[in-house]
Amino acid sequence: MRPVRQPSPQPVHSAHHAASYYAATANRQLVLPTLEGREEADVCIIGGGFSGLNSAIELAKRGLSVVLLEARQIGWGASGRNGGQLIRGVGHGLEQFNDVLGSDGVRRLQQLGLEAVELVRQRVAEFAIDCDLTWGYCDLANTPADLAGFVEDYEHLHSLGYRHNLRLLQAHEMHEVVGSPRYCGGLIDMGSGHLHPLNLALGEAAAAASLGVRLFEQSPVTRIESGSEVRVHCASGEVRARQLIIACNAYLNDLEPYLGGKVLPAGSYVIATEPLPEALARELIPQNMALCDQRVALDYYRLSADRRLLFGGACHYSGRDPANLSDYMRPKMLKVFPQLADVAIDYHWGGMIGIGANRLPQIGCHPQQRNLFYAQAYAGHGLNATHLAGKLLAQAIAGEDDSDFQLFNRVPHITFPGGKLLRSPLLALGMSWYRLREYLRR
Fold first, then answer.
1. Fewest beta carbons less than 10 Å away: which of 158, 200, 230, 360?
2. Within a 13 Å sphere around the CA of 59, how many CA atoms are in the beta-carbon half?
3. Angle separating helix axes 197-210 and 98-126, nearest 10 degrees
4. Neighbour-count burial of 8, counting CB atoms closer than 10 A to its CB (0-12 exposed, 13-18 middle, 19+ buried)
């Protein structure tokens, strides 16, 4: 077995990016100041990930002045360290919201899940962002029941007017998309794909700055004063604004208790191999697609632009990360691709994603503070949903048609029981039950 090359992981509260493949291959360096003194704006945004950046871009396009505060570096959280899979859809099991939104409202959410991917496509094109955007994705069926679900998805997407090519695959056709015998079918979607998420975030930050957005890094917010004018305090400065957007997701902590209780931070992990020979890369993923299976503890993977396999998954709800991410993730990779037994792991990293109880992104307005807006809890599928959130928040704040925003705002989101100390163990117990039920059904 080849040795594992393991860069020293960054501490969880480090001011710098995780020691990931993405950080090592970032194609630009931003030089952004720390907030000093007082700034005034129409809107203050807390959080320099995709939600905050795209809210800033959309607001600036509408002529509003914007200040964005990032506690560490742009894209430091899930936005800059995720699996890079750009997949259609928002939420899980949207039919559960029929009683709240009606069938027309649910159908509109489904359409917005398709439009969200197009927003990313448009953003990359408009600002010529170099982020290795590649089209092609395949859902992988672990069981015949999964494949039957893909048939329903295929038919439903056509009923929504989905304009991209879809193709159902049977077991004997799976070699066309993946060099593993684990799957009994698949659904190809050429309207979804993959990209380099940190380079996208850095490109969007540069785009926001070009539109006049004032961006500050290393500026953690210590306190928020509510009122008709919001005052957002940092260690060495403050921002005064008419409106506030909180876009901290899994890293909100105790800054805003009402929102913090509705999102659960969960750990997710990725490893990246050394660059693979072209023939081996083609054997693993012949069409260079992003791929994802259907298990509760799902696997997702793709090739990077320099032919590394990026393999992720193993979401942890316990609040405790594995002692060694490479040792933890490598066996999972080898179950799918045993042909990588002699391939070195060059990078491993993890981070927190935000999960809500009903798995629908939480996009809305605070019920007691009408000038406080938020976006969070993307449940690991936020690359497109964050871009949608930015547009919807900007429409609502700018006084435009906010009917799509109100669809999300009308959905109630429960506060996780048990408070900060018990909510992670309780959810971990619940997810163990789902994994057991999945195993028994096989």
1. 158
2. 29
3. 80
4. exposed
pLDDT in tens, 117-134: 999 999 999 999 999 999
CA distance 125 to 131: 11
**Looking at residues 71-80, what average pLDDT do you find?**
97
Q: Which domains does the chain have, with CATH numbers?
A: 21-82+198-263+358-419 (3.50.50.60)
Q: Do the beta carbons of residue 362 and residue 376 sit within 8 Å?
A: yes
**Listed residue (412, 298, 325) closest to 81, CA to CA:** 325
Instruction: Give the CA angle between residues 252, 254, 259 to the nearest 5°.
Output: 60
**Rounded Cα gap, residues 118 and 186, in angstroms:** 23
Contact 315, 161 (CB under 8 A): no
Q: Estimate the crossing angle of helix 197-210 against helix 50-61, to 10 degrees.
A: 30
Closest among 120, 67, 61 to 90, alpha carbons compared = 120
Q: What is the C-alpha to C-alpha distance for residues 188 and 332, in angstroms, rounded to an integer?
A: 23
pTM for the model stands at: 0.93
